[in-house]
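SAMPLE LOG
Freezer: B-3
Tube label: C17
Construct: single chain, 374 aa
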Amino acid sequence: MSHNTFGHLFRVTTWGESHGPALGCVIDGCPPGLKLSAGDIQVWLDKRRPGQGKFVTQRREPDAVRILSGVFEDARTDGQVTTGTPISLIIDNVDQRSRDYADIADAFRPGHADWAYFAKYGVRDYRGGGRQSARETAARVAAGAVARAVLGPGVVVRGALVQIGPHRIDRGRWDWDETLANPFWSPDAGIVPVWEEHLEATRKVGSSTGAIVEVEAVGVPAGWGAPVYGKLDAELAAALMSINAAKGVEIGSGFAAAALTGEDNADEMRAGKDGPVFLANNAGGILGGISTGQSVVARVAFKPTSSILNPRLSINEAGEEIEVRTTGRHDPCVGIRAVPVVEAMTACVLADAFLRHRGQTGGGAHRPGRGGAP
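STRUCTURE (predicted):
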């Protein structure tokens, strides 16, 4: 009942705290024979790593990952491959400054989970938030790299920052290549100066701002997921909502679908060479909890960082009314570094869905007019 594990066949257990000696994860259920090295994982951790710009936390963590188990040298591939046994990954913490939190050791920070943790457990690690810290997401990104190995090159998971504060991208200028060319993971290069100005003003007054991240998985075949209680969109929404500071998830058109007519919302189909060709994707690639063969699309809304310099009203463990201001190193917008985390959680859900689908059906999917029951 500790709830530090997610997934069904592809199972991930994360462990560690923000200011502990290390953090990491154990991945169980990964098939054998997949090429996997620390370098394959490190490339994704480097995308999430803190201290890479003035608009993210200045905590200097190399996030160097080590593989402790689950791989072995394979002469046929001239490298390491997975063995089918649990893969254990560890990332050392090297730049903790616990003294930054001494003044709030017995105070509950508004907007944080301090009070909720204390109410549940009667004890909490106040140093950087302990287990509730976004530092935990490094382990998720590492697990996501393994999930990508399971999915293979046929499924591409990619994310983008589409809104910071009130400033949204222009979707008419969307270019996926731009997400790799700027520090904001923005597909719209034109919005970057606007975001920089907004973040600079926010940072100078000691405040923070929220954001929205969009993720797309291209190449997901039809048939993944299960009806009723194993819906792919339900699993994806749960995984994305488990990310620190996430406060909302929508699939496809999401909440905007409420304003559409039935005619506009229905994704019309025409006959194609290898199955239906959809004329729209309001469903976000999932219908009835099962993938349709279209791109799976989701968006996650992240709240503003709760650790801010400006004083907020709160109480302490003694029940006394106080004012709290949080010093130390924090992201003025957690959404920026959340992009690789959203990608990782999406990859983990899809890897699990792939393995479950293969286990139930042998991996095949019925194509209308190409054999099987009508």
